[in-house]
Amino acid sequence: MDQAIPMNKTFFGNATTGKLGMWLFIVMDGLTFGTIIIGGLGLRISAASWPVAGSILNVPLTAFNTFLLICSSFTMVMALNSIVKDDQKGLIKYLAFTIAGGVIFLGIQAWEYSHFIMGGEHLGNLLAAAGLPGSQFLPTTGIYGSVFYATTMFHGLHVLSGVIYLSVILSMALKQKFTSNNYDRLEIAGLFWHFIDLVWILVFTVIYLI
Amino acid sequence: MEGIKMSSSKSIMSTHIFSTDHKTIGKQFLFLGIFFLLFGGFQALLIRWQLAYPEQPVPWWLLGFIINGEAGMITPDVYNQLFTMHGTIMIFWAITPLLIGAFGNFLIPLQIGAKDMAFPTLNMLSFWTFFLSGVVLLSAYFLPTGAASGGWTSYPPLSLPAGGIPGLGQAFWTLSITLMGVATMMGAINYVITVIRLRAPGMTYFRMPLSVWGLWLTSILNVIFVPVIAAGLIMLLIDQLLGTQFFLAGRLAAGGGGDPLLFQHVFWIFGHPEVYILILPVWGIVSELLSVFSRKPAFGAKVTVICMSTIVVLSSIVWGHHMYTTGMSPLLGKTFMFLTLLISIPSSIFFFNWLATLWRGSLHFDPPMLHTMAVIWVFAIGGLTGLYNATVTADIYLHDTMFVVGHFHYTMAASVLFGGYAAIAHWYPRMFGRMLNPLLSKIHFWGTFITINLVFFNMMVTGYAGQHRRLYYPGEFEFLQPLADMNIFITIMAFFLGAFQILFLYNFIHSMLKGKVAENNPWKANTLEWTMDYPIPHGNFSTIPQVVNGPHEYSNPNIKDADWVCQTVKIEGDS
Amino acid sequence: MGKIKKYLPGIWFLDPPKDISLDGYRIDNVIQYTDFVITLYFGIVVAALIFFIWRYNARKHPHAVYDLGNTKKHRYLTIAMGLLVFFSIDVVIETMSFKDLKEAFWKFPKGEKVVRIEIMPQQYAWNIRYPGEDDIFGTDDDIVPPQNILHIPVNTPIVVQLTTYDVIHSFYLPNFRYKQDATPGMVTAMWFQATETGNFEFACAELCGNSHFKMKGYLTVESEEDFNGWIAAQDPEVSEEDEEDDWGDEEADEGVPTQWGWLWKELK
Amino acid sequence: MEDHKKTYFWNAIGLALLTVIEVWAIGLGLPRTGLVVLLLSITVTKIMLVALVYMHLRYETKTLRRLIALPIPLALFFLWGVMYDMAFDWTL
Ligand code: HEA
Ligand code: HEA
Ligand code: CUA
Ligand SMILES: [Cu+2]
């Protein structure tokens, strides 16, 4: 039994209930990220030394990752744009691109991690130059390692859940569940995906560039 | 069109266990909360036993045989586990489900005229995540090294492996609180959006009952601050399990190192609002019930709402008052003291409004009203003693003494507990269709009221006399030996307090089965939850009501032959 | 009955530990003022409650007065109420407290006649260090008395710097109404001055593990001569050149770490 | 909802360009504070672009926009309080 319920639309226009819920979630998630980032900055201020940006982390590769997320944000919003025009094919195509973007992002991040964890002489030299011990870069490598891994891992988990979330949406799209006047869920999923992109922009600057 | 799906299947699974009906979920939270309340209370009694009779084994009537220390004695590590788990359980697993989980779920849709929560499935998930978190928490007791013992504040480095607490207890603690946080966040999204979106036509924000206001503001605080502690707990958890060093410093940290102060900041940025998260529903419920049982509109309801909202804002910027002795800078110390003291302005304003609601009313001393008036008493003591703690100089002496423990038991244990009892007594007929036995309720009330004051006031006395908290054996210190008699006295009173809670439990269960069947509106209240027949069906209202009045039209001279009127009934002659 | 009589004085007249400090009275004063006003306010609340219960119960007063309390007059009244509380309690204690902090607790004494002590608590004991003859910390002639033994001269300002060997502890002096946390990775400071000689206790006020409750120390306040005599009787610590923050000791839980101490840090 | 293809496309290009500028800027050898300010302002711009265009905040009501921005000042207060205290020391 489905019952329509009168909505109080004052203040929030035509935003649907689900969308408001997602926005609220995004605010919460943003505060979680904010706390981790603020914590990292605080630790950095009080730390004795901090490796120079780019001395250990691979900035060009990560810049490519950033580019990838921007592209996937673009394809995500294009998926929405397609369904608004009732273009089912376009929807599926763009959704698939988006998911692929997320997967490649994760792949690159995994490669970066494994590289750090396996270590090696070159990495050891880089670390030594930055005043850190060992030939591997691990979460236990001083406070720098802690901050790096905690922030990127937490973001990575978001990308992972975003990919899963979008896969569900994709399977719904394949069953033609969305139409030009029923795409609320798609839009909500999109919000989450863009939010991941948005956070990454901040993480990229704070962890990799500054 | 949007709508809320309500399953029509009738199996036990979908109606009682994995139900998406907010009323059922509310009851599930209620039972879970009462279970944990008794569990935490039992731990409190063991704590008290140790403080009063440190050299004697726990007697059988306190279930001494489950203490697997030497010869039934509480050992120091067991004692530390006891107060850690007592504090944690009471705050996160007793009060949170009891007030926010149970009454948040039960009252919000009914009082604003909605058919259910905005996201019913999320609501169910919230309960089961919460349940899971409780299981994780308690399963720590089966670890060979026992449960967490770092205090409910769990300050690192003590709570890290390097801090000397063996085993995984601390990690279980962190994980369970994180899960609890996830459950709370799901609930909070639901409550906030439900109030924004699903108010019945005519139910403007200022026509919402104050109890909904309290719960809503609580949820807003949850939305903002639970994520903060979640982040802190994630950092703590990976410190505990992966060996990162966010909160390690000094000798224990290899290469660089983090800062234990960061955790204290993150904890209290959340922790201070958390105490208002616990008490805001009570403030709302008290404001509402005072009006019902005085048969008189809540005095200055709008001002009360504004005051509560102001406190919500202020509460988020005063966290530093828990850290005065950490070596805080003069600037921050003064700022936090000033901001903390500002809270007393809105507090005393709505406090005044409570008293003014009674003034010239027609007071009916039913059990809910008794508990409500007790809140006025205990919250005045609890709130006013907060002022000592807020003063930097006084707090330098009082910090981490039993005085602080007394302060927060007055605000939290006493005020919130009485608020919870008031709510249970008031809405019991709506939840279970029967009345609580009034005589037993009154005995329970008076017994609790007298003993709780003797327990918690005297805690403050011992604190002022210098006894610090988390002390396994105060007699170790010469300057605390004169307090032994007082500690025994407190403990005896705590046992009486416990006995009266058993009476409550008996009343609660017995009345559910055999109590007097309740009328539809036994207290003659105006709000929407009393308008339908019991049992309230899934979906609550067959047609969404049209609201025309505020919730407090008691004794309006324009109403003929009654002193109340439902929020949906137009009052002739009122503009 | 006898028992009850025994407890009653205990309930209402338990004194805090004897104040033997120069500035402890300031804290007592602020507490006493707060006692006084909040008793007053609480009295008003209770009086009002009792009066309302007696006068406005349903039997005596069956018809409530319809009063929303939302007129301008009411609003001003409530706001005045809030401000009254604010000015009569908050502003007063704030002024007192700020003044005390500025004049005493946050104003570290400077000059010759200051006794400087470094304290490093560890799980579950207090390590105490005096600078010794040369008045410089971290040198061979530092005095490290047995753990948990703290001697101070009377009527002399004592400045203490604290850091911890392992987890957070808190240096709690009930007779001085004072406590200060010792946190890993940072040096915190406090000062106090005794006005009376005698033997007292100090404690650890921050949960630090299973034996937190046993973490106590013995404070002896004595005359200047006695103090100097006591210092002279202690063996200077036998250790090599001591570097700053250097306690490379491996065992966390047993024994005194042999090397610790830091160069005295200048205070704000 | 109309067709926003163009806006979306140019937004993506803008974001990519800003990223390139960021990476390029760190190699310039700017003074530290200048660099931080520059990078942070670019980041804020990028975040705004994503939020306003991709997340459609531009098309939502003013109230929603404001409410979502509300936690930011709060977070800044936390940032100040926490960083100030962590950097502060009674010793010089
Ligand atoms: C529900 C819980 C709750 C509530 C409501 C409060 C309310 C307040 N608390 Fe409390 N507090 C805790 C729970 C709570 N607290 C807990 C759990 C801890 C310890 C945690 C731990 O360390 O483990 C703590 C600790 C704590 C500390 C730290 C102490 C320390 O560790 O050293 C401080 C310091 O400032 C403080 C202050 C205050 C203040 C100023 C208020 C104010 O909000 C009070 C405002 C109220 C009033 C001012 C009273 C109303 C006014 C009147 C009655 C006036 C009379 C009116 C008329 C005449 C009309 N609290
Ligand atoms: C809402 C929260 C809440 C509530 C309701 C309570 C309720 C009580 N608390 Fe608790 N308490 C805390 C929150 C709370 N507490 C916190 C946060 C801490 C700090 C922890 C820390 O330091 O980390 C604390 C710490 C604390 C201490 C200090 C421990 C220490 O520092 O050494 C003490 C000591 O007396 C105490 C006592 C009590 C008592 C007597 C009650 C009573 O009100 C309890 C009344 C209820 C009952 C007694 C239940 C009745 C049930 C039974 C009788 C069933 C018994 C069953 C059998 C015998 C089979 N509490
Ligand atoms: Cu050291 Cu408690
Ligand atoms: Cu607080």
Give the beta-strand count of chain A: 1
Helix content of chain C: 25-40%
Low-confidence parts of chain C lasting 5 or more residues at pLDDT below 50?
Answer: 239-256
Q: Name the structural class of chain C.
A: alpha+beta
Helix and strand pattern of chain C: HHHEEEEEEEEEH
Regarding quaternary structure, what we see is heterotetramer
Describe what this molecule looks like in 3D.
- The complex is a heterotetramer of chains A (210), B (575), C (268) and D (92).
- Chain A is an all-alpha fold.
- Chain A has helices at 17-46, 59-84, 88-118, 121-129, 142-174, 184-209; one strand at 2-4.
- Chain A has a single domain (18-43, 59-209), classed as Four Helix Bundle (Hemerythrin (Met), subunit A), CATH 1.20.120.
- Chain A is elongated, with a radius of gyration of 20 Å.
- Chain B has 575 residues and is mostly helical.
- Helices cover 61% and strands 1% of the residues of chain B.
- Chain B has 15 helices and 1 strand, in the order βααααααααααααααα.
- Chain C is α+β, with helices and mostly antiparallel strands and 268 residues long.
- The longest helix of chain C is centred in the N-terminal third of the chain and has 34 residues, at 72-105.
- Chain D has 92 residues and is an all-alpha fold.
- Chain D has one domain.
- The N and C termini of chain D lie far apart (61 Å).
- The site of dinuclear copper ion has 8 residues of chain C, from loops.
Question: Keywords, please?
Answer:
heterotetramer; A: 210 residues; mainly alpha; Four Helix Bundle (Hemerythrin (Met), subunit A); 6 helices; disordered N terminus; C: 268 residues; alpha+beta; Immunoglobulin-like; 2 domains; five-stranded mixed sheet; four-stranded mixed sheet; 4 helices; 9 strands; 32% helix; binds heme-A; binds dinuclear copper ion; binds copper (II) ion
Element layout with pairings:
The complex is a heterotetramer of chains A (210), B (575), C (268) and D (92).
Chain A: E1 2-4, H1 17-46, H2 59-84, H3 88-118, H4 121-129, H5 142-174, H6 184-209
Helix pairs in contact in A: 1-5, 1-6, 2-3, 2-6, 3-5, 5-6
Chain B: E1 3-5, H1 12-17, H2 22-52, H3 76-112, H4 120-139, H5 169-197, H6 210-241, H7 260-294, H8 301-315, H9 330-342, H10 344-358, H11 367-390, H12 392-398, H13 402-432, H14 438-464, H15 484-514
Chain C: H1 2-12, H2 24-55, H3 72-105, E1 115-122, E2 125-129, E3 149-153, E4 157-162, E5 169-173, E6 178-182, E7 188-193, E8 198-204, E9 216-222, H4 224-233
Helix pairs in contact in C: 2-3
The complex binds heme-A (HEA) (2 copies), dinuclear copper ion and copper (II) ion (CU).
One heme-A (HEA) sits between chains B (153, 275, 278-279, 321-322, 340, 343-344, 347-348, 351-352, 355, 380, 383-384, 386-387, 389-390, 395, 399, 404, 407-408, 411-412, 416) and C (41, 44-45, 81, 85).
